[in-house]
Amino acid sequence: MRIVVLTGAGISAESGVPTFRDADGLWAGHRVEDVATPEAFEHQPGVVQRFYDTRRAALAAVEPNPAHEALARLERAIGDDLLVVTQNIDDLHERAGSHRVLHMHGELLSALCVACREQVPWSGDLADQPPCPRCGAVALRPDVVWFGEIPYGMDHILEALEGCDLFVSIGTSGAVYPAAGFVQAAASYGARTLELNLEPSEGSVYFDESRLGPAGELVPAWVDQLLGR
């Protein structure tokens, strides 16, 4: 069985990672328009860099939860038949032991050089304007896909959706495209679809089945069921 899993903010929220938007419409105290668009970076690069520097540093204080660990266990069992596509920019899937992870919205622990377009591993701050280790230009930005930019790996994702037997969405709102349309794409190719979410997403109607509850409970139970345990 070939499986594509889409994960969103809900899976990492249980590890203490702030969700994309809080109930007040802010993202860690900022309007999304102030920190997650190319225009924001052009007009106030220091604010944007410090915002992501803070988020990058905060990763050290969080750990993978049972949902991340269950997906890593599933990968160990079925190998290349599983692809995890995540909207999250943290590294919790990898720390839990997953290897087949595609970060469609980029990664906090990576920097993108605007000059040479190289992606370089990065764990420190960017606000102090360090040079690119590849070309030397002072042109590094967070390697994060902002609003108005094209997500990473779309060709690979669409190919996987076309070939999968099961599509599973975990902890997503179903409000952000193109990810919100993955369930319909997978279903159009004949895949069964399953939603595991704390509450119904905006796209719940498109899933064959929805299971509601914390990801840390639902995902391990689903993996156990899948593996016949």
Q: Which percent bin holds the helix content?
A: 25-40%
Tell me, rounded to a whole number, the average pLDDT: 94
Report the total helices.
9
Q: Widest sheet: strand order?
A: 3-2-1-7-8-9
Low-confidence region ranges: none
Beta-sheet strand percentage? Answer: 15-25%
Secondary-structure element order, N to C: EHHHHHEHEEEEHEHEEH
What is the makeup of the main sheet? Answer: 6 strands, parallel
Question: What's the number of extended β-strand segments?
Answer: 9
Assign an overall shape. Answer: globular
**Euclidean distance between termini CA atoms:** 17 Å
Radius of gyration: 18 Å
Strand-pairing-aware structural class? alpha/beta
What does this structure look like?
It is built from nine helices and nine strands. The mean pLDDT is 94. β7 (166-170), α8 (182-188) and β8 (192-197) form a beta-alpha-beta unit. The longest helix has 14 residues, at 45-58. Helix content is 33%, strand content 19%. α5 packs parallel to α9. It is globular. The protein has 229 residues and is an alpha/beta fold. The strands form two sheets. Strands 3-2-1-7-8-9 form a six-stranded parallel sheet, sandwiched between helices. The two termini are 17 Å apart.
Question: What does the secondary structure layout of this molecule look like, with pairings?
Answer:
Elements: E1 3-7, H1 9-13, H2 32-35, H3 38-43, H4 45-58, H5 66-78, E2 82-86, H6 92-96, E3 101-103, E4 106-113, E5 119-121, E6 140-144, H7 154-163, E7 166-170, H8 182-188, E8 192-197, E9 209-212, H9 215-226
Helix pairs in contact: 5-9, 7-8
